[in-house]
Every structure is written in C-alpha cells, then in structure tokens.
Amino acid sequence: MNTLRNAVLMIAFATCLVTSPAGAAPLVCSRALTQALRTGGRAEAALRYALPAIDGTAHSVRATLALEPPVFARLDVAATGEKLVVRSDGGEWLQPQAHQVLHFRAAQAAAPLRWWRVLLGEEAGARERRVGDGYLLTLIDFHGAPVDSARVWLDGKGMPSRLEVGDGGGGVTTYRLSGWRMRPGRGAAAFHLIVPAGFESVELP
Description:
By secondary structure, the chain is an alpha+beta fold. The protein is built from 3 helices and 12 strands.
C-alpha cells in the first residue's frame, strides 16, 4: 500500500497544480501550469523518481505524466508497461508483471486528493511560503495545526520541476519533472483503464 500511496500522492499532488476556479488567485507554484492548461487542455512532462527495492537499494523510474483539468492525471512507465490513472472517483493501476489491475476508490486516495481540493479553492486549508529557491506548501486542519506538507521547485518558465513529498514511512520521495509540453485534451476516456484479457481485476478493500 505504501507504493500505491506514493504513486497516487505524486500524481494527485501534481493534479492539484492543474487549475483554480474562475476568479481565484492560483498559488505562485501553480500559476504557470494553470495558465498553460487554460489554452492547451493537456499537459505532459517527463517524470523521474527513485523507487526503493526489497534489498534496500533504489532504482530510477522514468515515466510520462499527463494532466488534464478538472481532476485527471495519468502516469505511464514505458520500461515496465505500468499505467496509473487518478480521477475524483478513484482510479486504476495496471501492473503487467503481476498480470493484474488494481482498482481504488476516492476514499483510498482521500489524503492526497485533498491537495487538489485545497488548491482548487474548494476548502481553505493550505499555506504557501517561499523557502530558499522553492516553495513550501502546508496543509492545516480545522484548528490551524499542520497535517501534511510538500516542497515545490519551479523551472525558468515557472513550471514545476521538482516535488518533494513524504512517503508515508518517515522518508521523503523526490519527483523530477522536465520537458513540459501542451497538447489538445483527450477527455475522461483517456483516464480509465480497461482490464486486458488474462489479467486479474483486483478491488482494493
């Protein structure tokens, strides 16, 4: 479940950078991507991050991240054929090596999905602060106490180039983004995965 949490957290957090409601001022760290999506419809970037192995080592994962408003995100890992999609109602994770597709509900991604709800202006509960050459985003509870945080760095065009988020086990995972490009939107159908023949369909409890 930690691996699922990490993957969902990463693309859900990236999705929170996608847009903001009309009339609302986007956070500084999301401003350029928000403006680009208003004209392009779909944002794609190369993604690189380290994935821990059972023996304690880590190997680099390279993937393509795609984002579309209002709440669609997709991750494709070319080397393994893995595909992961997140929507407001949950999503799917296709795992070729295990010959299975995991299905998860919005409740199982509730914590990371709160990031985009906050940044979409649907609830007040985030603080943005400039720290060094990046930005620290902090989620707060109803009492004003911090409950989660992430750091964001921007490239020369103001697009997210690095994300650092907690991995749920006390560590930090770093995601590096590059080569942002805008394309026409593909719509909701591009963010639903069909279970291939011979694959097991697994509903997470």
